[in-house]
Structure formats: structure tokens, C-alpha cells
Amino acid sequence: MGLLSLAIWVPIAFGALLLAFGRDEHARAVRWLALIGSLVGLAVTLPLYGGFEATSAAAQFVEKAQWIERFNVHYHLGVDGISFWFVPLTAFITVIVVIASWESITERVNQYMGAFLILSGLMIGVFSALDGLLFYVFFEATLIPMYLIIGIWGGPKKIYAAFKFFLYTLLGSLLMLIALIYLYNQSGGSFDIATWHQLPLSARAQTLLFFAFFAAFAVKVPMWPVHTWLPDVHVEAPTGGSAVLAAIMLKLGAYGFLRFSMPIAPDAAREWAWLMIALSLVAVIYVGLVAMVQKDMKKLVAYSSVAHMGFVTLGFFIFNDLGVSGGLVQMIAHGFVSGAMFLSIGVLYDRVHSREIAAYGGVVNTMPKFAAFALLFAMANCGLPGTAGFVGEWMVILGAVKANFWIGLAAATALIFGAAYTLWMYKRVYLGPVANDNVRDLKDIGAREFLVMAVLAIAVLYMGLYPRPFTDVMDASVAQLLKHVALSKLN
Fold first, then answer.
1. 355-366 pLDDT, tens per residue?
2. Residue 66: which H helix or E strand, with range?
3. From its phi and psi, is residue 482 left (phi > 0), alpha (psi between -120 and 50) or beta?
4. What is the sign of the dihedral through the CA atoms of 288, 312, 315 and 463?
């Protein structure tokens, strides 16, 4: 069993163990076992960085074994510069969520922690799969634990939100399944994704495939106008669910564009790039304006996520190295920053049991340490230089200007909206005099919450000040992808 298999199956095994043997009367032991499982899961991903050859665009740490012989389906894993960072990022966020949920979850603790560990392994499987059917199985399987997390531990409208999440994402994925079966037949009975990249497909076939993949991946990102499920889900989901959804699950859709849509249908990707850019700019600008009028903190950050992911898809479809690398960096940075934003809201919700901005005011007076962390994360959400939030957005804007000045200018305006809604929220929640008795009675964060905030703060600052380890890994793979799209069969 290689490193990638360990990264997938170790958290799944710990999750299954928790489901089988955990009981609420042993909640303390369950939490510790979940923490050990998440830490072991993170530990097995760390050797990947030391062994990764950054100058190579080929898949590395490859594992291949026969799975379903009759249909030539393989258990085929590997990572390249595009997928590499999402493996340790997923494991890292899982550790953070387990620690952050230590006290807030008091019922069915084993099922809650088990669902997150299983979800972690499944998401790493999506980023590692080099077989089309294996990718689809992992991609769809992630819906199950997240559906349960929302539907069991969510808010008052949790059932509605869980159904909306499940139906939106499942319906889009059914078209992707049809596309995968078509590619299987066209390739002479192979589910190997690399083989699909070399298929000489007609313009019509490429267009149909492009929109079949678009149906699955645009909903997952989510792109405007199929983003409406996300705010409802975020509002109802427990804090840990929101953090994992924003930090990792949204990235599955964006990753799909780079692994399937662009290399398999390169001519269609170039032909319909104008549509992708237009939808991305609508997300960046219009959804940013929608975020400004939100009264619920979670809803505001949810719309903020749609706007930030708009930068990702914009970067991908301007077809230059700065744009695609910037989109990837933005995905990683958004994982840290959005996770931190939702966990910060969770800290306040655990104390006051309200997400309404109007329920707070002057929190800095009673929670100064927490307010300092929240300010850093708010600045990162604005894209302040020196934080993770700046690097990806800046690269995408530079790439957009290189492709078309007006697209770059339109994207840059979104930074103003991002600063407006984030800082306005911070001002109303944290600054000024103490607004009410609930705020007056607040206790500052303890050692456990301080640890979570500090680790995320270090990640946000490190990536903002020294992004080179992140960008160096992806350069060769991005260059090869762009070369493949430029030299496609019908060009």
C-alpha cells in the first residue's frame, strides 16, 4: 500500500472504527481516537512533499491494480503538480475541524467524527484518482457523509438544506457519468484519464462533453447561477461542515475543470472560454454585491466563497500560466482563509447561539485575543498583501490583464467589494462599545480554540509571505496542460 492509498484509507479506517465502536458515554475517548486518526492521516501525507519531483509534469506516487477486470477498471492513483497540494490540505483541515468540534458536538459524537474522517479519505481519493470510474465513485461518495453531517447536526432547516445540496450536486454528476461512458467507448474500453486526454474527438463531441462536465463541476464550485444551494447549506450546516465544505469540497469542482474539461475537450474549452469568463466575472462582481447586504455572518461568508471561487475559474479560462497557477494558489489559500472565517463564526455561535450580525457589537472589548485573529482572517479575506488571500487573486488579475486589460480591470474591482463587505462585517461585530449583555458576558478563547486559530493564522501568513513552495510544485504540470490545450487536435 503506497502513500496515497494510506492517505485515503487511514482516515476511512479510523472513521469506520468510530462508527462501529463509539458511544456517547465514551465521548472523550471517541474524540481522542478521532484526533489520533486525523493526525495519522496528516502524517502519511507529509512524506509526499519530500519525495515529489517538482520539475516533472508526470503523475507521481503512482499505484495501479486491477479493480473490475471485465470492464478494464483499475484502482489507479497518482498526483501531479495540479493535484498535489490538495492531499495534505484536506488532511490538515480535517485535523483542524476535529479539534474545533471538540466541545460543540455533544450528541452522536462518534458518528460526527467518523463522518468527517471518512469524508477526508474520500476527498483525497478524488484528487488522487487517475481512473475515470474510480474518480466518479470517490466524487459521488463524498456526498453521503456531507449529506449526513448537514442533515443530522445542522440548524432548524437542515433537512431542506441537505436535500438541496444532494439533489443539485447529484443531478449535475449524472451528465458527467454519461460523458465518462462515452469516453470509455471512444477509447476502446479504457477508463484511464491520461488516455482520454489524447483522444481525437470531433468539435461536436468536445462541445457536448464540455457541457456535460460543466454540469457536474460548475454546481460543485459553485459558479453563478447554480450557486444558490451554497448559502442555504452553509447557514444550516454545523461549523465543521461549513469549514470542510468551503475549504475542500468546493475545490473538487474546480479541480475537475483542469483534470477533465480542459485537457479532454481543449477546443471546446477555448471556444466557450468567453462564457466561463463571463460567468466568473458575474460571480466575482454581482455575488460580491449580494454579500454586502447579508445580515447573517455565515451567509455573508458563503457568498464571499462564491466570489472568491469566481477568481479560480476566471484564472483557468484565460489560458496563461499566471492565470491557471493563480487559480490553483487561490484554491489553496481559500481553503485556509474560508475555513478560518467559518470557524471564527463558530466560536461566536457556540457562545451566543446567533449568527446575526446585529446580535453582536464590541466583541473586541471582551474577547481581545479572538478579535485579533478574526481581524487577520478578515484581512486575508479582503486580499491584503502579506496574507494567503492576496497571492492567488493577484496572480489571476495579472494573468487576466495579460490576456485582456478590461477583464483584469473588472476582476480587480472585486477586491474593493471584498474589502467592503468583510470590513463592514468586522466593524459591526467586533468594534465599538459593548452592544448588549450577551457580548458583555463573553469569555475569550481558551487554549484549544487558541491553538486552532494560531495554526490557521500561521498557515495564512506563511502562504502570504512565502508562496514559492506552493507555486514551484505546480509550474511544470500547468505548463504541460496549457501546451496540450494550445496544440489540441483541431487547432
1. 888 888 888 888
2. strand 60-68
3. alpha
4. positive
Question: What is the per-residue DSSP string for 296-315?
Answer: BHHHHHHHHHHHHHHHHHHH
The whole-chain average pLDDT of the chain stands at: 86
Residue 297: CB atoms within 10 A of its CB come to: 24
| Residue in the structure block whose three cell numbers are 432547516 | 157
With a cut of 90, say whether residue 352 has pLDDT above it.
no
For residue 434, the 8-state DSSP code is -
Residue 386: exposure state from Cβ atoms within 10 A (0-12, 13-18, ≥19): middle
Kindly report, residue by residue over 201-216, the tens digit of the pLDDT.
Answer: 888 888 999 988 888 8
pLDDT tens-digit profile of 288-322? 788 888 888 888 888 888 888 888 888 888 888 88
**Crossing angle for the helix pair 109-128 and 132-141, to the nearest 10 degrees:** 160
Give CB contacts under 8 A, 24+ apart, made by 226-231.
226/168, 226/172, 227/283, 227/287, 227/306, 229/164, 229/165, 229/168, 229/169, 230/302, 230/305, 230/306, 231/299, 231/302, 231/303
CB contact burial 102-129 (16+ within 10 A = b; e otherwise): beebeebbbbbbbbbbbbbbbbbbbbbb
Q: To the nearest 5 percent, what fractions of the chain are helix, strand and coil? A: 75, 5, 20
Residue 79 bridge partners (DSSP): 60
Residue in this structure with the C-alpha cell 453563478, named with its chain if needed: 224
Q: What are phi and psi of 16, to 5 degrees?
A: -65, -40
86-90-96 Cα angle (round to 5): 140
- Model pLDDT for residues 452-479, shown as the tens digit of each residue: 899 999 999 999 999 888 888 888 888 8
Q: How many whole angstroms separate alpha carbon 432 and alpha carbon 268?
A: 53
CA atoms of 36 and 168, how far apart (whole Å):
34
